[in-house]
């Protein structure tokens, strides 16, 4: 069975930039999975530091209003990996999931760490590189011209372990299936 993981679509990240396109693509994928009655799991990053915009009691830690109505199943995490000290593994096992699709925020941290951790646990992983975003920029890394989503997508694709698709390729390959 296939499941969709929606990582860190929270105010503290989404409000850092203009992510209309990314949010729209994430919503389309969520609708595909829900239409096919395939599981959609949201991950919510929580920091314990009171100064953090992702502190449990802050508005920044809340799921972004554009997608929160789709969040029937929300798990919390405290590290970039959605698997480390969370209920994700047991949730996926109970659901019989063997193929995990990844969307969300903080491409180069939370999405990438989760994709690698999923692969290490034996899941087939599909990384939807343009259905995710990051609050960081090329300037953050002092790497002029860096396209973070493209770079992370290339690294994962070159690994030959993780399937990397943009939304259009995802539609071509998976949307035509009767069940995702």
UniProtKB/TrEMBL annotation:
Protein name: Nicotinamidase-related amidase
Keyword annotations from UniProtKB, A to Z: Hydrolase
Family (UniProt): Belongs to the isochorismatase family.
InterPro entries, per database record: Isochorismatase-like_dom (IPR000868), Isochorismatase-like_hydrls (IPR050272), Isochorismatase-like_sf (IPR036380)
UniProt keyword Glycoprotein present: no
Hydrolase is among the record's keywords: yes
Pfam family, one: Isochorismatase
Alphabetized PANTHER family for the sequence: ISOCHORISMATASE-LIKE DOMAIN-CONTAINING PROTEIN, PEROXYUREIDOACRYLATE/UREIDOACRYLATE AMIDOHYDROLASE-RELATED
Annotated coiled-coil segments of the chain: none
Stretches assigned to the Isochorismatase-like domain: 3-153
Highest taxon listed in the record's lineage: Bacteria
């Amino acid at each position: 069975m296939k499941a969709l993981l929606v990582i860190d679509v929270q105010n503290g990240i989404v409000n850092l930039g203009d992510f209309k396109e990314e949010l729209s693509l994430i919503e389309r994928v969520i609708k595909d999975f829900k239409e096919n009655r395939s599981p959609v799991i949201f991950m919510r990053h929580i920091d314990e530091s009171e100064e953090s915009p992702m502190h449990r009691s802050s508005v920044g830690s809340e799921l972004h209003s554009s997608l929160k109505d789709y969040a029937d199943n929300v798990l919390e995490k405290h590290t970039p990996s959605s698997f480390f000290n969370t209920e994700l593994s047991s949730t996926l096992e109970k659901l019989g999931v063997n193929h995990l699709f990844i969307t969300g925020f903080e491409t180069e941290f939370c999405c990438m760490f989760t994709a690698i951790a999923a692969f290490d646990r034996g899941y087939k992983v599909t990384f939807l590189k343009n259905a995710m975003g990051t609050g960081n920029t090329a300037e953050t890394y002092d790497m002029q011209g860096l396209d973070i989503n493209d770079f992370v997508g290339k690294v994962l694709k070159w690994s030959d372990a993780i399937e990397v698709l943009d939304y259009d390729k995802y539609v071509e390959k998976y949307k035509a299936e009767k069940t995702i």
